[in-house]
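QA checklist item 7 of 12: single-chain prediction sanity check.
[x] sequence parsed
[x] length recorded as 146
[x] structure emitted
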Amino acid sequence: FVFMKIIFDYNRTIFDPETDNLYLGILELLKKLSVRYELFLISRNEPTRKKRLEELNIKNYFQKILFVNEKSKKIFEKIAGNTKKIIVIGDSISNEIKIGNQLGFFTIRLKRGEFATQIPKNEKEIAKIEIVNFNNLENIILSYEK
């Protein structure tokens, strides 16, 4: 058993602002992953998000949920602690992907929605793996774990 942490971005990664709901299959995925790994959720601190997160009933799957004004290396380092195996999953290459790469974490970019067409400005913005949905995510995580 490998001790591993997974950091999820919230908006447009697991939550779809267009439908005001979780993306299809997310709930099942969180249930599965939370049994095996420590999950963390990071979100911009916007007025409606905390309340909507409460209503979604997913808090129990996460070790910690962080609402931040700005995503920074410091916040990601704090979550990581001494853990060596960290996966960062997000949709923004200039945010969570870049920060994850700078810290040497394994980054997975979800190419969907508003940031799907973003083009990396440098190698720090290139995720290790790009996906368009979560269908194969569990297998990717398992292969990274080994």
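[x] summary fact logged: The mean pLDDT is 94.
[ ] second reviewer sign-off
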